[in-house]
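subagent[fold] <- orchestrator: predict structure for attached chain, return tokens only, no commentary.
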Amino acid sequence: MTSLETAKKIVSILDTKKAEDIRVIRVRDLTVLTDYFVLASGTSSTHVKSLTDEVEFQLKQLGTAPAAVEGYGSAQWVALDFGTVIVHVFYPEARRFYDLERLWADGEKIDIDSLPKQD
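subagent[fold] -> orchestrator:
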């Protein structure tokens, strides 16, 4: 899968599991860390964990495992590093505090409504 296809799949998984405020930011031209950030919020620490669990499970089924998972214990901000895509799932207060959308404001915002739906 390309990095954009991976991001699309992640958006689809998060949407199916009722993640809130899903955003995709293309940061390929701004950093060597990754091509895309996918950001989403969960409604509780349990929801944050279930969102990240589902993304990890479904991508493993497709042969892609995260290189690293950070923050799972506290479930305030969980990051899954898939190399070309880094997924950030936040508890709402943590998302407002860290405000990655502002920090990466120079990145290209991808309209997720225009992304083709994944199966």
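orchestrator: received. Logging for downstream: Residues 45-61 form the longest helix (17 residues). Residues 27 and 107 are 5 Å apart (CA to CA).
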